[in-house]
């Protein structure tokens, strides 16, 4: 008797464990600004072909179907859902959300441009707009500096950053916010810290002003929250757990059959 049942069911358990990790990460980041949920995709493994379709049987007739035994499953990819998240109104002047397609671009410590949907910005000691804390934040690109005497900051949906300075009634433009878009956003590399890096799969970044040629618009005083749907994730959690249990029962069934064979006695 073959022990293939054990190995086939084990692939199912391994795949369900990977899916459970994806679901757990989604739930863990339910309150992470700009987080985009993941989805595990599966594919079947190789097949053991005992008879190919169209083979000639003992009567000389062509068989309509073959006999192929599947050898299990595996996770083929973890796909990122870049669907729009809802907005949390904060009214903070340096909280910016993207409505539509696009990413903020910031410069890493080595000057490499990286990308994010999280728009919780702040100012460093010289007034430059940075992502993260004011002391260790990555600078926005192209750079925007807020004057020290600014009493108000206004960002238009088209990304024009203006300030009102002490003693002036009119707004003064201090920068133009630009967003990056990609042909295949799902091909971006996740770096953690709400950041993504460009890859060959994503294609090179196309830089444009918000609201132009399909680029999303900017909403000041708001943050895009995670697009994780708690109810759907809980359903996935339950179905994944049940699938794992079913595969474990298949392992137990295969073990019991092997035990019966091992206990056979020749009379």
Q: What is this structure's SSE topology?
A:
Blueprint: H1 4-28, E1 38-44, E2 47-51, E3 67-70, E4 73-80, E5 87-89, E6 96-99, E7 104-107, E8 113-116, E9 121-123, E10 129-131, E11 138-140, E12 150-155, E13 160-165, E14 172-176, E15 179-181, E16 189-192, E17 195-197, E18 206-208, E19 217-220, E20 222-224, H2 230-262
Antiparallel strand pairs: 1-4, 2-3, 5-20, 6-19, 7-8, 7-11, 9-10, 10-11, 12-13, 13-14, 15-18, 16-17
Helix pairs in contact: 1-2
Fold and architecture overview:
By secondary structure, the chain is an alpha+beta fold. 22% of the residues lie in helices and 32% in strands. Strands 8-7-11-10-9 form a five-stranded antiparallel β-sheet, with no helix packed on it. The protein has a three-stranded antiparallel β-sheet with strand order 12-13-14, with no helix packed on it. It is elongated, with a radius of gyration of 27 Å. The mean pLDDT is 91.
What's the number of helices? 2
Tally of domains: 2
Largest sheet: 5 strands, antiparallel
**Helical/strand content category:** alpha+beta
Residue-averaged pLDDT, rounded?
Answer: 91
The coarse silhouette is elongated
Q: What proportion strand?
A: 25-35%
> Alpha-carbon distance between the termini?
20 Å
Rg is 27 Å
- The largest sheet has its strands arranged as 8-7-11-10-9
Order of SSEs: HEEEEEEEEEEEEEEEEEEEEH
Descriptive key words:
267 residues; alpha+beta; 5-stranded antiparallel sheet; 3-stranded antiparallel sheet; 20 strands
């Amino acid at each position: 008797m073959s022990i293939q049942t054990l190995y086939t069911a084990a692939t199912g358990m391994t795949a369900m464990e990977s899916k459970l990790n994806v679901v757990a990460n989604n739930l863990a980041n339910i309150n992470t600004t700009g987080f985009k949920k993941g989805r595990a995709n599966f594919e079947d493994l190789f097949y053991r072909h005992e008879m190919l379709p169209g083979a000639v049987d003992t009567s000389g007739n062509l068989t309509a179907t073959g006999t192929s035994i599947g050898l299990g499953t595996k996770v083929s990819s973890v796909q990122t859902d870049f669907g729009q998240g809802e907005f949390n109104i904060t009214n903070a002047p340096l909280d910016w959300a993207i409505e539509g397609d696009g990413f903020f671009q910031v410069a890493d410590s080595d000057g490499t441009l990286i990308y994010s949907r999280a728009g919780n910005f702040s100012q460093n000691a010289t007034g430059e707009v940075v992502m993260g804390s004011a002391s260790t934040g990555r600078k926005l690109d192209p750079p925007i500096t807020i004057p020290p005497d600014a009493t108000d900051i206004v960002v238009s949906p088209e990304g024009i950053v203006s300030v009102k300075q002490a003693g002036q009634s009119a707004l003064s433009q201090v920068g133009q916010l630009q967003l990056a878009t990609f042909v295949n956003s799902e091909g971006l590399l996740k770096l953690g810290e709400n950041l993504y890096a460009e890859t060959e799969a994503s294609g090179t970044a196309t830089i444009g002003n918000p609201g132009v040629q399909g680029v999303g618009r900017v909403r000041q005083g708001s943050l895009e929250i995670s697009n994780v749907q708690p109810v759907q994730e809980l359903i996935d959690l339950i179905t994944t757990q049940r699938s794992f249990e079913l595969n474990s029962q298949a392992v137990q069934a295969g073990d019991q059959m092997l035990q019966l064979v091992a206990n056979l006695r020749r009379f």
